[in-house]
Write a structure and sequence with these properties.
The complex is a heterodimer of chains A (236) and B (239). Chain A is mainly α and 236 residues long. Chain A has eight helices and no strands. The relative contact order of chain A is 0.15. Chain B is mainly alpha-helical and 239 residues long. Chain B is flat and about 75 Å long. The chains are: A mainly alpha (236), B mainly alpha (239).
Amino acid sequence: MIDLHGYGPSIFGGAILTIEVALLSLLLALILGLLGALAKLSSNKLLKLIATLYTTIIRGVPDLVLMLLIFFGGQMMMNEVSDWLYETYDWDVFININEFVAGVITIGFIFGAYMAETFRGAFQSVDHGQIEAGHAYGMSRWHIFRRIMFPQMMRHALPGLSNNWMVLLKTTALVSVIGLADMVRLASEAAKAVHEPFTFLLPVAGVYLALTAISEWFLKRLEIKFNAGVLTGSAA
Amino acid sequence: MLEAFLALFADNDIFNPPTLLHYWDGLVTTVQLVFLALLIGLIIALPLGIMRASDNPWISRPIWLYTYAFRGTPLLVQLYLIYYGTAQISGIQESFLWEILADAFYPCLIAFVLNTAAYTTEIIRGAIKATPRGEIEAAKAYGMSWFLRLRRIVLPSAMRRGLPAYSNEVIFMLHASSIASVVTIVDLTGAARDIYARYYAPFDAFIFVACIYLCLTFVLIFTFRKLENKLMAHLRPLS
């Protein structure tokens, strides 16, 4: 077994933190992605413009720059907002943009833009006649979305979603740059302290590979579930 | 003209000539790093991609292992491994290699090259695998050797097919290069961090640099779209 010089438990804690950041930002990204896709497909010009600006700008700027901007700038902005709230409404609120919040918001924001593009394509591939049929049955818009659009859309979106999730998982390593004690940061600090970079960083790389492998297995299950209604060549 | 230009800076605290020069140096470093990484990465990826597409598992499996490891781990971890790792190899600090590796630029370049080569290898493999069977059969019927087939039939069409995916990889590399600022390199992001630290002005420093990245991205997208139109002209529908 490799000797981690007593850093093992703390790096394991860092791995848990990495997974937390990844899952929370995935949740945020999925919500933003759905909203972005619906805005892009809506007939409202203003919504469309906002969504297009969002996806274009976010996808054109490096993740790290956005993260630094939100981490360093976010606190400044929040301070001004809380000052303003205090002066005008006498509300004393303090919102703390720490490394964790900044990391989750940035990653969720970035991948929301990618998810929006994935969802948009998937929504467009749902047969329009089926939506009309839903209307003809007297379904409400929410009903149509939940019963007709969403289940079929997910089938088309899943390959793109899996891809985005894999990239998102690796992007979480960036939170170590703004000071969050995730597994990359803890391992690199331990590596510097003990002068043994391979002992600490290779296991971390191994954890990422394991997480990727687990995700692949899980996403394959989901794909089978959402493709249940589709006949493939092998079924015959 | 010059006076009007200087007057523009007179009442500007942050974007004065020294700061802009710092950004310019950062831009040069970023462009150098990305261009060299992509060029060397492509040169390495071409033979690897051909090997990866081979039907012989003894040839394609080792390459798969390489691409799986490099595509499955964060670039930041790879960079740390190479940046801190090379310094620990015994005897390297006395050898001639240390002259190169002591500067952060080269370990960083090595990490970027290995990373982009892994992604590009998979792009090339996918493009080669998608070659229509009939084209290869026709080439065989003409008595072409394996190499001639590769050179005249498979690679030219595979490069066209791989171009859209490769343009994404180029943009990804440009964005990933901002990680270089973590290991003391003053690239565009590094310059922005310096200027943020000097003036404590996060919005000015980072939004400015975000705009530069955005412009670079648009230039790349535009260039690749032109290239695609040119190379794929035979596939365009008649209008």
